[in-house]
Design goal:
It is a single chain. The protein is an alpha/beta fold. It folds into 2 domains: about 375 residues, TIM Barrel (Alpha-Beta Barrel); about 80 residues, Immunoglobulin-like (Sandwich), CATH 2.60.40.1180. About 25% of the residues lie in helices and about 15% in strands. Helix 11 packs parallel to helix 14. The chain binds 1-deoxynojirimycin and calcium ion (CA). The site of calcium ion has 6 residues, from loops.
C-alpha cells in the first residue's frame, strides 16, 4: 500500500511524535456515511468525506482517524465481536476499500488507527467453532473452558466461579457441544480468548503484524487490561454497595493481572519495529491509578475520568488536578469527552430543557468543552459529530439495538449506547446526506438544522469553533506538548490553566457560568502581557488582558504571549 509521508505541520516540531502533538478523530463506520444506500455507513462513505477532516483549507484539521471495528462480524456487538481479524465486513466494503481509505488519509497527512478487539472473538469465529467441538481439538485450549463444579440444590449446574459479565448475568455459559462452561467478559457471543496459550498469543500478534504491513499507523486496543485473568480463576471477593451485580465484587482476579506488562512490552517491540506507530489501550472499568500503571512510551491509555465530570468548573478543576498528580510530567494522557459507548457530551453538559434540537446555551457549553478538550495536556480524541455538538438520539428501550440495553434490568443497569451512534447529518434533506436509503438508526431529529453544511456556512457555529481551535493548537507548541499548571482564578465558576513549552505559553480561562465573571490573574513574573488568541465569544483577537480579566458568560478564552 503506498504510504505517503504526511506534509510538515507547524507547531511542536520534529522532536515530538504525531500521537502526542496531534488530534485523533473517532469514526463509528456504521454511522458516518453510507455510499451505497443500504442505510449502513461504510468505508467508501468515509473515504468520500475525508476532506471534512483534513487536507483542505476549510477542513476540521485533525491528524488521525480511529476506525471502530470494520471486520466480518455477526454484529451481536456491532463489530466488537470479530469473526475474522484480517478481513473486512462486506457490509462495510472490501480490503481494497480499506486500502483506498488508508491512502486517502495518508495523502491528507492523516494517520490511521484501527480498533483491535483481541480480548474476545465472535462465537462464530472458526477458532471458537473448532474449540467447542471437543477437548482434544487443536483449538481446544484457545478459549477459557472449565467443567462445572457440580449442581446447586435446585439442580442447576454451578459456574466455575463468581465472575460476572459486564453485559449482565454470569460470565459463564454452558456449551452443550463441548459439555463445559466457557468464559465471556461480555456477551455469550463474545467468548474470551485464552492469552495464556502461546499459540493464541502468536496468532493475535500475527494479526498486529499483518495490519502494520497493510500500512496502519496505530491500534486502539479494546479492553486491553482484561486480556489476562487469574491463572487459577479464583472467585472475586464480595463487596458491599454499588449499583448492580458487577459492583458487588472487587474485581481482583478478572482483570489487571501482572502478565499484562510482559505482553505489552512484546506488543510494543513489534509495533516499534515500524517508526511512528502507536497504540492506545482502552482501560476497561478501571481507575486513574490503573491507567497510570499501564501508560508506556508510545502507548496511551484511556482513563475516562473526564467522562463522569458534570458541568462544573470546580469539578473539572478537581479532575484535572487529580490527573496531573497521577500522570506527572512523564506520562502522556489521552483525553476523551465522548465515544461510541457513552452519552454524547453535548447532551451530558446541556442545561435543563436543551431538548433534542439543542439550545443556544447548550451550544455555548459545547464550545467551552471544545476549548477544554483541545487545550488541556494530552492527546485529544474527538468523536464524530461532536464538532457540530450533536446531541443524543432518543430511542425507546423496546427499539434498542444495543445488546446490553436490551438485557438491562434492576440487577444490571445499562444505558442505551445507540443514543451516541446516530447517523452523521451532513446536510439538510432526506437522509441528511448520510444515506440515500433508510438509515439503520433514525436520523438525529435536529438534522435539518444541525448539520455539517449549515454549520460550515456560519462563522459562529460549533464546527467553525472546532476548526479555529484546531488551527490554533497545531500552531502553538505549548498547547500541543506543554506542561500544565492550574491557576487559582478567584471565581469558582472559572477553570484556568497555563500550558508552557520552552518560551511558548498559553493561558486558558473557561467560564462555566451563564453570568459574566471577572477574575484576578496571579502574577507570573513575565513582562509580556497575555493577548487573546481565541475566544468562543465576541472578543477581538490580540485583545490585551490586564491583571483583572473580564469574561463573558460561557466564554472559553485562550491567550498567548505572541
Ligand atoms: C469496549 C468497546 O468500546 C465497546 O463498544 C464494546 O462493547 C466492548 N469493549 C466489548 O468489546
Ligand atoms: Ca452502506
Amino acid at each position: 500500500m503506498p504510504a505517503q509521508p504526511p506534509p510538515e505541520r507547524p507547531g511542536a516540531g520534529a522532536e515530538h511524535d504525531w500521537w502526542q502533538t496531534g488530534v485523533v478523530y473517532e469514526i463509528y463506520p456504521r454511522s458516518f456515511a453510507d455510499s451505497n444506500g443500504d442505510g449502513i455507513g461504510d468505508l467508501a462513505g468515509i473515504t468520500a468525506h475525508l476532506d471534512h477532516l483534513a487536507g483542505q483549507p476549510d477542513s476540521l484539521g485533525v491528524d488521525a482517524v480511529w476506525l471502530s471495528p470494520f471486520y466480518p462480524s455477526p454484529d451481536h456487538d456491532f463489530g466488537y465481536d470479530v469473526a475474522d481479524y484480517l478481513g473486512v465486513n462486506p457490509k462495510y466494503g472490501s480490503l481494497a476499500d480499506f486500502e483506498r481509505l488508508v491512502e486517502g488519509c495518508h495523502r491528507r497527512g492523516m494517520k490511521v488507527v484501527i480498533d483491535l478487539v483481541l480480548n474476545h472473538s465472535s462465537s462464530e469465529h472458526p477458532w471458537f467453532q473448532a474449540s467447542r467441538t471437543s477437548r482434544s481439538d487443536p483449538y481446544a485450549d484457545w478459549y477459557i473452558w472449565r467443567d462445572s463444579p457440580g449442581r446447586s440444590v435446585t439442580g442447576r449446574r454451578r459456574s466455575p466461579n463468581n465472575w460476572r459479565s459486564w453485559f449482565g448475568g454470569s460470565a459463564w455459559t454452558w456449551d452443550e457441544v463441548r459439555g463445559q462452561f466457557y468464559y465471556h467478559t461480555f456477551l455469550p457471543q463474545q467468548p474470551d480468548l485464552n492469552w495464556r496459550n502461546p499459540a493464541v498469543r502468536e496468532a493475535l500478534l500475527n494479526v498486529v503484524e499483518t495490519w502494520l504491513d497493510r500500512g496502519v499507523d496505530g491500534f486502539r486496543m479494546d479492553v486491553f487490561n482484561v486480556f489476562f485473568k487469574d491463572a487459577q480463576l479464583r472467585s472475586n471477593p464480595r463487596r458491599v454497595g454499588g449499583r448492580g451485580a458487577w459492583s458487588w465484587q472487587r474485581h481482583l482476579h478478572d482483570r489487571n493481572q501482572p502478565e499484562l506488562h510482559d505482553l505489552l512490552s512484546q506488543l510494543r517491540s513489534i509495533v516499534d519495529t515500524r517508526p511512528g506507530r502507536m497504540t492506545v489501550g482502552e482501560l476497561f472499568d478501571g481507575m486513574l491509578a490503573d491507567a497510570a500503571q499501564l501508560i508506556a512510551p508510545r502507548h496511551l491509555v484511556f482513563d475516562f475520568s473526564l467522562i463522569g465530570v458534570p458541568w462544573s468548573a470546580a469539578a473539572f478543576t478537581r479532575t484535572l488536578a487529580a490527573r496531573d498528580a497521577v500522570f506527572g510530567t512523564e506520562r502522556w494522557p489521552a483525553n476523551v469527552l465522548s465515544n461510541h459507548d457513552q452519552p454524547r457530551h453535548a447532551s451530558r453538559f446541556a442545561p435543563p430543557g436543551d431538548g433534542a434540537a439543542g439550545s443556544t446555551e447548550g451550544d455555548a457549553r459545547a464550545k467551552v468543552a471544545a476549548v477544554l478538550l483541545l487545550t488541556m495536556r494530552g492527546t485529544p480524541f474527538l468523536y464524530y459529530g461532536e464538532e457540530i455538538a450533536l446531541r443524543n438520539l432518543s430511542i425507546p428501550k423496546a427499539q434498542a439495538f444495543d445488546p446490553p440495553a436490551r438485557r438491562a434490568n434492576f440487577l444490571f443497569r445499562w444505558w442505551n449506547r445507540d443514543q451516541a451512534r446516530g447517523p452523521m447529518p451532513w446536510r439538510a434533506g432526506p437522509g441528511a446526506g448520510f444515506s440515500a436509503g433508510r438509515p439503520w438508526l433514525p436520523l438525529p431529529s435536529e438534522a435539518a438544522t444541525r448539520n455539517v453544511e449549515r454549520q460550515a456556512a456560519d462563522p459562529d457555529s460549533v464546527l467553525n469553533t472546532y476548526r479555529r481551535l484546531l488551527a490554533l493548537r497545531s500552531a502553538t507548541p505549548a498547547l500541543q506538548v506543554g506542561s500544565q499548571h492550574l491557576v487559582a482564578t478567584s471565581d469558582a465558576d472559572v477553570l484556568g490553566y497555563v500550558r508552557r513549552a520552552g518560551d511558548d505559553a498559553a493561558l486558558v480561562l473557561l467560564n462555566f457560568a451563564r453570568r459574566p465573571a471577572s477574575i484576578a490573574l496571579p502574577k507570573d513574573g513575565s513582562r509580556e502581557p497575555w493577548r487573546a488568541a481565541f475566544s468562543t465569544r465576541d472578543r477581538a483577537p490580540g485583545d490585551m488582558l490586564g491583571d483583572e480579566v473580564a469574561l463573558a458568560p460561557l466564554e472559553g478564552l485562550v491567550a498567548t504571549r505572541a
